[in-house]
Amino acid sequence: MIADIHPFDRILIANRGEIALRIQRACRQLGLACVQAYSSADAGAPYVRCADEAICIGPAPSRQSYLSSAAILLAARASGARAVHPGYGFLSENADFAARLEAAGMTLIGPTSDAMRVLGDKISAKRAMISSGVPCVPGYEGALAADDAALAIASDLGYPLIIKAAGGGGGRGMRVVHNPEELLGAIRITREEAERAFANANVYMERYLQRPRHVEIQVLCDHHGNGVWLGARDCSTQRRHQKVIEEAPAPNVDPALIARVGKLCVDACRQIGYRGLGTFEFLHEDGELFFIEMNTRLQVEHTITEMTSGLDLVELQIRVAQGERLPFTQEEVEVSGHSIECRINAEDPTTFVPSPGTVEFFHAPGGPGIRVDSHVSSGYAIPSHYDSMIAKVITWGKTREQAIVRMEGALREMKIEGVKSNIPLHRDVLQSSEFRRGGMSIHFLERMLDDRRRSQGANKQA
Ligand code: ADP
């Protein structure tokens, strides 16, 4: 047996909302007991009642509950859970938390703290990818200061450039620079912001690609050196660098390119000693992929890969954490049809201001090829302390067109009353000719919103 595999039959779920419910479903599939950690703001949530056991880890603010390693470790100990599933967000990519679990002889359902540390820092992640031959955005993989050296590096790379925080995440800690006059100020401000937001002032730079698409490759690795890639997703429909709609596979991207780079991703995992689920994020431009970062956890959009591969990724993630070998080879992975996910947020569809409160009425759509992952039902009170995503609507079709038509029907059927939601925005996107064509750049949604604001302004003036 490999030394750091510890058997477990009970998992502490250190997350909330739809992903907590998703993990509970996987535990049930595997016959594992699940202990749901919850903050006092989530005490009444239906998924807390569904768990085999539930344990309060603190008050509403995340820092004192879902982000508190000490509270979660205590909850794991008290409940007898030998493993922790961190979901996404919160502590899921926190290497210090992973190290604390390791030191306590517990299993984090995810990679080791060492792998997380290498890949969690965007500078060391890029260096690791370069050494494994994974194609990266051309840049400078070192910490920058606001000095002449930075000016010289920038002029070698060529403008426009993007200054990025090594510890950045969630679409924050990035600044585009168009000319040398802007460079040093941008480095200074990004360093200050990064220090404040991520407690890591290191920033680096890379070429700013002008009209890329966001394409990512899902991988899954076990403890025994086996790994597979499970196809690509396109997450170019973004607002403020945050994903709004995802689809799989990435339309109009050469499958041979995905296969070649997918293999390199798995090789990189082997070299780093990575295990579990992971996502390699790329920008795609002019027929090429350029690595930007790796997410060392389960992602929101894992669902669309499940729909196109027929696999239960959360179940597999837990099985490899138990030390099981991957139950299939790369040759046995089959990707079929097309899947789309719309992230349904409780927010104003035009101002994007969150809209917490009580969901007076909730009706989820159904029918062939429709899946809804949500923790919400009529009467559910959305707390104001956490992010505003309340459901994921996922469709599958034999073709992209069928997946879109099914999504339109599903969103028409879905009812959310009592709070605002971004369903109208999704419906507008689905109807746009650019989305219909597929292969939009990451600027597509922002441009659509700008056009809408301009035309509304013109209407007001008229
Ligand atoms: P985060 O960890 O905050 O999500 P990423 O590095 O994944 O940051 O980048 C988020 C988004 O920012 C990308 O999906 C893309 O829209 C944009 N972006 C990042 N790097 C570049 C780049 N070099 N050129 C153009 N856009 C970029």
Q: For this structure, what is the CATH homologous superfamily of the largest domain?
A: ATP-grasp fold, B domain
Give me the CATH architecture of the largest domain, please. 2-Layer Sandwich
Q: Tell me about the largest β-sheet.
A: 8 strands, antiparallel
- Based on Cα principal axes, name the global outline: globular
Oligomer: single chain
Average pLDDT reading: 96
GO molecular function: ATP binding; biotin carboxylase activity; metal ion binding
Domain ATP-grasp: 126-322
GO biological process, one term: fatty acid biosynthetic process
EC number: 6.3.4.14
Question: What is the strand and helix layout of this fold?
Answer:
Blueprint: E1 10-13, H1 17-30, E2 33-39, H2 46-50, E3 53-58, H3 69-79, E4 83-85, H4 95-103, E5 107-108, H5 113-120, H6 122-132, E6 139-140, H7 148-157, E7 161-165, E8 174-177, H8 180-198, E9 203-207, E10 213-221, E11 227-239, E12 242-248, H9 255-272, E13 276-285, E14 288-295, H10 302-309, H11 313-321, E15 338-345, E16 357-358, E17 361-363, E18 370-374, E19 381-382, E20 389-397, H12 400-413, E21 415-417, H13 423-431, H14 433-437, H15 444-461
Parallel strand pairs: 1-2, 1-4, 2-3, 4-5
Antiparallel strand pairs: 6-9, 7-8, 7-9, 10-11, 10-13, 11-12, 12-15, 13-14, 15-20, 16-19, 17-21, 18-20
Helix pairs in contact: 4-5, 6-9, 12-13
Residues 137, 162, 168-172, 174, 206-209, 212, 214, 238, 241, 281, 283, 292-293, 442 line the site of adenosine-5'-diphosphate (ADP).
